[in-house]
Q: What sequence folds into this?
């Protein structure tokens, strides 16, 4: 039961972060009339990416390897979701639009998550040192 709750936790956080990114991305690309189906696909994709993020928090895999795996999983999910939503009409679309946007968003989210984790780690260490 604890494992299921943990997986749901990662999924819900992923959906939350993803819905904000989806809204900003769609607006930036001029898609103010996204359908409920499109938004549902992106929310589900974000939830799956959130669950995939669990790989980053395991001690069994070193962080560089986990990051590469996570990147590949998330990129695959993004390409599949773009295909499902009908955004990709050619392979050049993937390289012109999807790859640069994905890399920019991935770096931004990764940096925020990494900085947040380090700040949390410092706070915990400071709290433990004061005891």
A:
């Amino acid at each position: 039961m604890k494992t299921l709750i943990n997986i749901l936790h990662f999924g819900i956080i992923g959906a939350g972060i993803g819905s904000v990114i989806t809204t900003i991305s769609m607006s930036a690309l001029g898609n103010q009339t996204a359908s409920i189906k499109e938004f549902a696909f992106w929310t589900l994709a974000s939830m799956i990416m959130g669950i995939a993020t669990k790989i980053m928090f395991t001690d069994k895999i070193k962080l560089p390897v986990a990051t590469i795996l996570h990147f590949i999983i998330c990129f695959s999910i993004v390409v599949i979701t773009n295909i499902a939503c009908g955004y990709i009409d050619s392979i050049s679309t993937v390289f012109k639009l999807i790859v640069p946007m994905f890399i920019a968003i991935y770096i931004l989210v990764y940096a925020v998550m990494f900085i947040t984790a380090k700040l949390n780690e410092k706070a915990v260490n400071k709290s433990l040192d004061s005891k």
